[in-house]
From TrEMBL:
InterPro entries: AAA+_ATPase, ABC_AA/LPS_Transport, ABC_transporter-like_ATP-bd, ABC_transporter-like_CS, P-loop_NTPase. Residues 2-249 form the ABC transporter domain. Belongs to the ABC transporter superfamily. Keywords: ATP-binding, Nucleotide-binding, Transport. It comes from Kaistia soli DSM 19436. One of its GO terms (cellular component) is plasma membrane. This is Branched-chain amino acid transport system ATP-binding protein. It holds the Pfam family ABC_tran. One of its GO terms (molecular function) is ATP binding. The lineage of its organism: Bacteria, Pseudomonadati, Pseudomonadota, Alphaproteobacteria, Hyphomicrobiales.
Length: 252
């Protein structure tokens, strides 16, 4: 589904991502872990298209995307969430999900003029789908509230709903467990599992090892911009290079 090949990114000569290669098979949930500053978020930004790589290739479903703008990658089936969700605070939960729809008939002026009925049907279909997704992530009771009224954990669920609305094939999740209380974390993990069972692939940055151990068949470990290793979470957690990288990070 996703291939990252010899990708590097430098900021003023500093290699935040240094010759990174890995692949994420279709249908998998793969973790991307490593100490602070390892280059995980930069790697996400390179895949999503908010940053351009200094070198290397990125393929989604076999198609080269490293030079495509972010919105084309979304259209190709790539979605991402952020460590700190940024919903439109004044808009309702439902509206926040609705604006993430790929088909926005109201934005096509000519279509509006000539095919009002079909535009209205598409809008109704989008609203119905947004409602379903909001219910799926357990936010139906708060769907009319402004997004700014949600707790941190509910905002993570809203982010999940927004990416689902874009009908992705691959979802990049940036720290879905950060700042989430245990009850909501359980819901988030169950929903990720349910979405994955429908065939959607995940790459997840996460420091919470409970989530990683439960959801991720494999983890890719990064440190200092490079890939240290890859394997089952319980195996990588015992790998001396991985232990060293985390301890190095703790004392640095
Ligand atoms: N825009 C930028 N300009 C300069 N340096 C940057 C920029 N973005 C990231 N870096 C540096 O690149 C390195 C990797 O950062 P990155 O955020 O990718 O790490 P991370 O693994 O996601 O860390 P964390 O777990 O703390 O989120 C860090 O040293 C960071 O300071």
């Amino acid at each position: 589904m996703l291939e990252v090949q010899s990708v590097s990114k430098s900021f003023d000569g500093f290699r935040a991502v240094d010759d990174v290669s890995f692949a994420v098979p279709a249908g998998a949930i793969v973790g991307l872990i490593g100490p602070n500053g390892a280059g995980k978020t930069t790697t996400f930004n390179l895949i999503a298209g908010t940053l351009q790589p200094t070198a290397g290739a990125i393929r989604l479903g076999g198609r080269a995307i490293e030079h495509e703008p972010a919105h084309r990658r979304v259209a190709a089936g790539l979605a991402r969430t952020f460590q700190i969700p940024k919903p439109f605070g004044e808009m309702s939960v439902l509206e926040n999900v609705l604006v993430a729809a790929r088909a926005q008939p109201g934005e096509r002026m000519l279509a509006n003029l000539f095919a009002r009925a079909s535009v209205r049907r598409q809008e109704q279909a989008n609203i119905a789908r947004a409602r379903e997704i909001v219910a799926f992530v357990d936010l139906a009771k708060v769907e009319r509230l402004p997004a700014k009224a949600l707790s941190g954990g509910q905002r993570k669920l809203l982010e999940l709903a927004r990416v689902l609305m874009a009908e992705p094939r691959l979802i990049l999740l940036d720290e879905p467990a950060a700042g989430v209380n245990p009850a909501l974390l359980e819901i988030i993990m169950a929903r990720i599992e349910a979405i994955n069972r429908t065939g959607i692939t995940f790459l997840i940055i996460e420091h919470n090892m409970d989530l990683v151990a439960r959801l991720c068949g494999e983890v890719i470990v990064m440190a200092e911009g490079r890939v240290l290793g890859r394997g089952a979470p319980e195996v990588m957690a015992r790998d001396p290079r991985v232990v060293d990288a985390y301890l190095g990070g703790a004392v640095a």
